[in-house]
Predict the structure.
Amino acid sequence: MSLDANRSDLVFGMVGTGAMGRGIAQIAATGGCTVILVDSRAGAAAEARDHVAKMLGKLAEKGKLTPEAAAAAIGRLKVAAGMADLASAHVVVEAIVEDIAVKQSLLRELEAIVSDDCLIASNTSSLSVTSIAAACRLPGRVGGFHFFNPVPLMKVVEVIDGIMTEPWVGEALTVLARRMGYVPVKAKDTPGFIVNHAGRGYGTEALKLVGEGVADFADTDRVLKDAAGFRMGPFELLDLTALDVSHPVMESIYDQYYQEPRFRPSPITRQRLTAGLLGRKTGRGFYVYEGDRAMAPPPKPGPGGWAGSVWVVPSEGGLAVAALATKLGATVETGDRPSAQALCLVAPLGEDCTTAALRHDLDPRRTVAVDPLFGLDGHRTVMTNPVTEAKWRDAAHGLLGADGKPVTVIHDSPGFIAQRVVAAIINVGCDIAQQRIATPDDIDRAVTLGLGYPAGPLAWGDKLGGGKVLAVLQAMLEITGDPRYRPSLWLKRRAMLGVSLLTPEG
Ligand code: NAI
């Protein structure tokens, strides 16, 4: 079987015309398909057509679409009187309620209406495409076509093969995606596919470090935005998606991967969900909201400069810290050992301040760690150990903030904040590649377009250095004993071989 998804008379059935269905209908219509809208709620399909017509009108007003193209697309939207109107469809996409039994029953009903060569796709985000298709007479024609919300702005779609999906289905959906102006990424039918799987590292690791008392929500968000370059902090993001949506997803992915420690959810979100602190939509989540504005507590002010003697560990990161300390007015000691009055600075990868101080045989009371991995030009993170004296903590804070750059002081943590969160993301991305869920290029494309991260996990690992990311994870594993930090074999082998993390298996 095959389908020419570029045929000019393509009839596209859209079942379920809620938030997602409307968006998909819009891009199918602008992509030149005749779109038949079906919804089980009376009047919903007509409302969806009116909504899409309004959106297309706005695009035309903004000059993003010619008035003729908008009018033609609106003319291609047809409201069905009932499911029977789908008989002529070449492709039907469903975006109805996320319930396996309801989806299976819809597909059985559809199969009695459409022709045997009609492609059927599901926009499911969390159900198995294989299990949705299992209810069908012809499961080979069923695939996943997973768009992101809001569809017209999120230009990527996951094309998912269930176990029984025939190759022509993925091929046709890929062509159809391109016809609609979308970037298709191919994924195997696995929990979370690519994007919702790759997104596990961010929130879960941030919650883990907050749970350990390393930093508070606001400081964690600040560091990840300013130092690592994320557009939104993990807690801002959790507030936006709302805990009644995101906590169940965290639990579901964890359980579907049979309690994979990398995805272990946090009691913090369970408790806050129970308390009704859902996020923006309830006015209070991790932040309190006034309208759409988060009332973030202001950063703690620094002591404002310091210029004494500093001894810096002679590692690669340490050299950069020493250069900065000199620039900021400190006297950097050059001896093998610190003098009795020196502030001791370490710049570890994956180690906590305690371990680094002891490994270098330094006085832990005078030792403070500085995160070297994301550069020292912008936001700087300094980390104490349990016995660092306040005087030396303030000295490091004052020195590193002497040029007015923001400094966040955190408690001891293997991998600071940014190292551990970014390493977790890279590790999960690598494991998606290892499991052959998607190609390395598609993983990076899906993550940058679907999650808006500053880089795809594999390219990001290359930029930071695969060996460094491996070192972060190995140290974290060693110090915590927690298997969530075990490096993916994809990462380990490529870092050991000194090749790009984007290197596919030969
Ligand atoms: P929604 O609740 O906004 O819309 C669902 C629509 O389906 C409603 O209009 C409802 O009347 C209709 N419907 C329900 N059962 C039906 C049936 N048996 N036959 C015909 N129509 C039926 O839901 P939303 O958010 O659009 O989600 C739809 C699907 O898309 C779900 O599978 C969801 O997991 C998936 N999805 C949702 C995303 C989101 O952010 N909202 C993102 C990606 C996928």
Summary: The radius of gyration is 26 Å. The chain has three domains: 11-189, 197-294, 309-405.
